[in-house]
Amino acid sequence: MMNRRFRSLAVLLFTLLSVAAVVPAATAQPAPMIPELTGIRVGRHATFDRIVLDLRGGRPEFFVHQVPQLIADGSGLPVSVPGNYFLEVRMAPAAAHDLDGNMTYTGSRNFPTPSLTNVRGVAITGDYEGYLTVGLGSANDRWHRVFLLDAPTRVVIDVGH
After folding, report:
1. Which of 114, 115, 133 is nearest to 124 (CA)?
2. What is the pLDDT of residues 24-52, one digit of tens each?
3. Which residues of 136-150 are buried (b: 16+ CB within 10 A; e: fewer)?
4. Which of 42, 70, 84, 93 would disulfide-bridge 135, Cβ 3.0–4.6 Å?
């Protein structure tokens, strides 16, 4: 009788310890990393201009809008970028800095693109509260497409000539 009670108690104790060991491991996973901008590349192709936003981390969602003018997130002030037509690409979650506030993208935040046919300039117009916004100025109102690539993560913006 005592041996049976001891054995039942040992099984119960082993079960409780096993559950206690597994539950914290399942709930103590790190928060997902916010994708961080590390580079902006531009290139001219036969029928379109391409802007590539290099990211470290996961995949952000993105929202694309043609806008009459590029506006800085937070301040609401206009952002001067060469061109007659403007495209805004907003990514979330995403940032151009890490969680400690260190810049992960150290290149120019507003630059002309003389090597491209239609796109005249690129600017980071926002890096605020998990939203990263990049604006493009183009000479002509043409088609555009935006898509994600993996390994490494990239947001690709194509603008027709």
Report:
1. 133
2. 444 544 434 899 999 999 999 999 999 99
3. bbbbeebebebeeee
4. 70
